[in-house]
Amino acid sequence: MPTLFPWMSEEVAALESAGLRRGRREVQPLPGGACSVNGRRLWNFASNDYLGLAGDPRVAEAARAAIAEFGVGARASALVAGRSAAHVRLEQTLARFEGQESAVLFPTGYAANVGTIAALVEEEDVVFCDRLNHASLIDGCRLSGAKLRVFRHSDLETLERELHKASESRRRLIVTDAIFSMDGDEQSARHARRIRGWPTDAGRLVVEQSSPANLLDGAATRDLRGSDGGG
Q1: Whether residue 187 is found in the same domain as residue 155
Q2: Taking burial as the number of CB atoms within 10 A of a residue's CB, which of 11, 18, 54, 203 is the most buried?
Q3: What is the pLDDT of residues 21-64, one digit of tens each?
Q4: Residue at 225 is within a domain
C-alpha cells in the first residue's frame, strides 16, 4: 500500500523485523491495582497509579465536587489567568505536608523538572546529571542551556572530580533521582553526603555558600518512604 512518505514504511518494517515495534492496547482498570487486558485479569505494575488512588471513591467524589464548582478544561498560565481557590488550597496543603513555607504546582512531573532546572541554571552554569536519571530530568538539563556533564550511574568519585574541574563556574547544579524509577535502586546518600552541600532528604533543593546546589527528584519516594509517606 503506497504511502505519502515511503521511508516511514521502511522504518516500520525495520522495527517489526527487529521485534521492536510497539502497539497500544486497551486496558480496563480494576479495583486494587489490577487491570483487564483482552479478558485477562492482571496486576498493573506499569501504571503511575501505583497507590491505587485513581479509583478511590473519596478521590472520585472530590473530583465531581471540583467539576461542579470550577468546571472542566484548562485555563491558561497562572501568571496570565490567575489560579483557582482549589490550587491555592492544594499548594498550602502540600507545603504543610512537606514542612515548607510554600509550594508551587505544575501540571505534570515532567513540567516540574524541566521548569525547575531551567529556573536554576543558564548558559553560564554547569549541571551534573546521573546517566540513569528520569528522561524529564535529562531534558530539563539540556533545555536549560547550561553546560551538561553526565556522570556514570552513582559514580560519585567521577562526580567529585567533575565538580572540582567546574569550580570556577558561576553555578553548579547536581541533578539526580532519589530512587531510579526504571531500576528501583537508590542514590547512595551515605556516600553522597561526603560531597559538600549534598542534601540529606529526598525531593528537596539544598544550596550552601560556595557549594554546588543539589536537586533530588523524590517523585519515586513520595508516599512510599517515611513514617508519614513524605518520602
Answers
A1: yes
A2: 203
A3: 999 999 998 888 889 999 999 998 888 887 788 888 999 999 99
A4: no
- Domain encompassing residue 78: 73-105
pTM of the model: 0.74
Q: Are residues 209 and 145 in the same domain?
A: yes
